[in-house]
Design brief:
single chain, 461 residues, 12% strand
Length: 461
């Protein structure tokens, strides 16, 4: 795709100056937006973004001191700290230039200007602004994106081959995709594969666990905020939508979005527009949305916990990821792949599975799906004393309610550790609520983030 021309905000109260600058910029493929006053410059910045600004220091109210221009410079820097600003005046002086640079001006031009020098200064400032924004994006990516490993997908079973066939058809499009499946089935891996097979593969894939974002900071996390928007907003911050611009935004556990926040998400999906918290400037974003949940969203809509119009926006295409117990051909292959990965990570030789271990893998119901299999193999690698993993090393315990499960295996008088008791309570709450994290957290008297931390601790998908 061709790069759009750089955009320049020009503020000068003389019409002939504005027209001369506009024509010069047009010849150099610079998109110039000209205004005649500081107020008009701030209004323009409030409605769209610019790559740089070129502002006069003297206007109608005060034609010699440069105070109006310096006040405008302060306001522009406050509104957009990354915006490069070049100041220009016919009343140049060393003191005024020093003052402007101290306030954050990127350079200083005297009238009448030299076209070659002016264009050189502007190109340098465009490059500087791009570097600043890229640095802010990379910093935000370091906070968010370095989470997961490369997406390897083993899919030899018939149900998974069907899912992959659907994925190959939809991945090259920009259609929103809703991935449905039990916890731990690999919805995040499928989302990454969708992104990698799309035309957006060279742009970011931004993952957000919607159950882990407190409602009080939902807007700031998703849409960003400007400095001073609230007590702890000490600098501008890029939101997840803006970070994913041009790429893919993966909203995991989508059913956990609070009802009050759903209209704000819907508006961005419908219009591709948002405002950072504390700012009135509208930003355009181009994002492909992939969402995932283990919940029955139709049932959530019926009970008034999820908006029907938001569901229609999310599920242009639905992909249903089967549970591991329905993927018999994949279980052994997945187990061996995990064994290879974890043996490499912990600097062990790669073991094989004994016959009794393979039978245990085949017959276990895998309530935690692929994630539970991964944890079981990792634990076996860590505790391995030999070259083969046997059934005892896997330590597979059927869940409560299954024959031989926790309810039958743990007599009422048998002692158990605090961690074991806590894990059992968490599993039972999730079982009772059909895996609905928000309702399970309510049963346990926990916040959703607190329950997610415990689920992660015990390897519960």
């Amino acid at each position: 795709m061709a790069m759009p021309p750089p955009s320049l905000l020009i503020a000068d109260d003389q019409r002939d100056i504005r027209e001369a600058l506009r024509l010069l910029c047009k010849a150099e493929r610079i998109d110039a937006h000209c205004v005649d006053s500081p107020a008009a410059a701030l209004a323009a910045l409030g409605t769209r973004g610019f790559d740089a600004a070129l502002i006069d220091l003297n206007y109608a109210r005060d034609t010699t001191s440069g105070r109006e221009g310096l006040d405008l410079l302060r306001a522009l820097r406050q509104a957009d700290a990354e915006l490069p600003v070049v100041v220009m005046t016919a009343w140049g002086s060393i003191d005024l230039a020093v003052e402007a640079m101290r306030l954050g001006a990127g350079d200083f031009i005297e009238k009448p200007w030299d076209n070659a020098r002016l264009l050189s200064v502007l190109r340098n400032q465009f490059a500087l602004g791009g570097s600043r924004r890229q640095a802010a994006r990379l910093q935000r990516e370091n906070e968010i994106l370095q989470q997961g490993e490369a997406s390897g997908l083993i899919a030899e079973s018939a149900p998974m081959r069907q899912v992959l066939a659907q994925l190959e058809r939809v991945a090259p499009t920009d259609a929103n995709v809703l991935i449905l499946g039990e916890n731990g089935t690999g919805k995040g891996v499928l989302a990454r594969l969708l992104h990698e097979r799309s035309r957006r593969a060279g742009r970011p894939l931004v993952k957000v666990n919607m159950g882990g974002i407190p409602e009080s900071v939902f807007e700031a996390e998703m849409f960003g905020h400007v400095k001073g928007a609230f007590t702890d907003a000490k600098s501008d911050r890029i939101g997840r939508f803006e970070l994913a611009d041009g790429g893919t935004l993966f909203l995991d556990e989508i059913a956990n979005i609070p009802l009050a926040q759903q209209p704000k998400l819907l508006r961005v999906l419908e219009d591709g527009e948002l405002e950072r918290v504390g700012s009135s400037r509208t930003l355009k974003v181009d994002v492909r949305l992939v969402a995932a949940t283990n919940a029955d969203l139709a049932a959530e809509v019926a009970r008034g916990a999820f908006r029907k119009d938001l569901l229609f926006r999310l599920n242009t295409v639905e992909l249903h990821l089967p549970p591991l117990r329905e993927r018999g051909q994949d279980i052994r292959r997945l187990a061996q792949a995990f064994a290879t990965r974890f043996a490499r990570r912990y600097q062990r030789s790669t073991p094989l599975f004994s016959d009794d271990a393979l039978r245990a893998l085949d017959t276990y119901p895998w309530p935690g799906n692929v994630r539970e299999l991964s944890h079981a193999v990792e634990r076996a690698i860590l505790m391995l004393d030999g070259e083969r993993i046997d059934a005892d090393a896997l330590n597979l315990r059927p869940p409560a309610g299954h024959p031989g499960g926790a309810a039958a295996a743990a007599p009422s008088g048998e002692s158990m550790s605090v961690d074991a008791a806590e894990e059992r309570l968490v599993r039972e709450a999730l079982d009772r609520t059909g895996g609905n994290v928000q309702r399970a957290a309510g049963l346990l008297g926990l916040s959703r983030p607190a329950l997610y931390r415990r689920m992660e601790k015990y390897g519960i998908g």
